[in-house]
Write a structure and sequence with these properties.
2 domains; 8-stranded mixed beta sheet; single chain; binds 2,5-anhydro-1,6-di-O-phosphono-D-mannitol; D-Maltodextrin-Binding Protein, domain 2; Fructose-1,6-Bisphosphatase, Chain A, domain 1; binds magnesium ion
Length: 331
């Protein structure tokens, strides 16, 4: 029988001998939050019977929207453990400080608690994205400087996909590893060790309905992806779920590129740099790929504000570099 690795065992075995366990335990906290969120998202369809999310259920209790619920689970799971000095969440305007009554830790957690929320009501995969930094100054309580760090400084990143199975995929800089939740055991089991982007790439994922609002370089890029321009033409098929984690996960397994470019109505793009683009950029680099805003690596961008947006091209390095080339050439 092959060895069964629970996520706990795997994280522990990857931990260097000198580690004090603070970081390891933070990953456990995230895995536990993921299990709690998964058990709730699995029942999302039942709110139609038991009461709408955001409305009142048959017991007369207020139903929390799932993204708000996921946010409070992660925040409450992580704010009192003494492992963090600050957090930032897509669901909260300001960054989250650790209350004075709790011990402060040395790490910073940035997260999108439930991305792809437009997909919840139609039973399509959704996900959680997270990134971890070290605090800039370990002696101080969390400040905005601790949050506004470039992706290059992340010490870990990952996502949880709530799909046909729940999967947790993460990296601490030693490759990308995927775990599938066994619902009977309530354990994440190692199912995808050392994930690497396969060659040749199979898919491109982009919302082509915005084509007329893209720059000429971006339009040319889509035509190239579709095989219309004879210049190292790729042989790709199209897949777009509209759920970043799910689109990213499929592309990391099958090979490909995901793009959410800038367009006239969204000149900065739609996706958020700190807790969407940067963690996935960290992962894709670990899987042998690349992420760019069309001009520079996502990992090099210094965020100016917590909820800053960025255009995003992410996946197979050659496919991402081609986007950069067309955007450069348009001048
Ligand atoms: P959200 O943070 O409001 O859930 O929006 C982010 C989602 C991503 O998961 C996905 O890649 C993108 O929005 C899809 O946007 P569009 O519908 O414009 O293609
Ligand atoms: Mg989001």
């Amino acid at each position: 029988m092959s060895t069964v690795y629970t996520i706990e065992r795997f994280i522990l075995e990857q931990q260097p001998d000198y580690a004090r366990g603070e970081f390891t335990n933070l990953l456990y906290d995230i895995a536990l939050s993921a299990k709690i969120i998964a058990s709730k998202t699995n029942k999302a369809g039942l709110v139609q019977i038991l009461g709408e999310a955001g409305g009142t259920n048959i017991q007369g209790e207020d139903q929390q929207k799932l993204d708000v619920y996921a946010d409070s689970i992660i925040m409450r799971m992580c704010d009192h453990t003494g492992r963090l000095c600050a957090m930032a969440s897509e669901e909260q305007e300001e960054f989250i400080t650790i209350p004075d009554r709790f011990k402060k830790g040395n790490y910073v957690l940035v997260y999108d608690p439930l991305d792809g929320s437009s997909n919840i009501d139609v039973n399509v995969s959704i996900g959680t994205i997270f990134g971890i930094f070290r605090c800039v100054d370990w002696n101080l309580r969390g400040r905005v400087e601790d949050i506004l760090q470039p992706g290059r400084k992340m010490v870990a990143a990952g996502y949880v996909l709530y799909g046909s199975s729940t999967m947790l995929v993460y990296s601490t800089g030693q490759g990308v590893h995927g775990f599938t939740l066994n619902p009977e055991l309530g354990e994440f089991l190692l199912s995808h060790p050392h994930m690497r982007l396969p060659e040749p790439p199979a898919y491109y994922s982009v919302n082509g309905s915005y084509f007329h609002r893209w720059s000429p370089g971006t339009q040319k890029y889509l035509r190239w992806l579709q095989g219309e321009i004879e210049e190292e033409t790729p042989n790709l098929s199209s897949r777009y779920i509209g759920s970043l984690v799910a689109d990213f996960h499929r592309n990391i397994l099958r090979g490909g590129v995901f793009a959410y470019p800038a367009e006239t109505l969204k000149p900065e793009g739609k996706l958020r740099l700190l807790y969407e683009a940067a963690p996935l950029a960290y992962l894709i680099q670990q899987a042998g790929g690349h992420a760019s805003d069309g001009v520079r690596p996502i990992l090099d961008i210094e965020p100016q504000e917590i909820h800053q947006r960025t255009p995003l091209f992410i996946g197979n390095s050659r496919l991402v570099q081609k986007a950069e080339q067309f955007i450069r050439e348009e001048g």
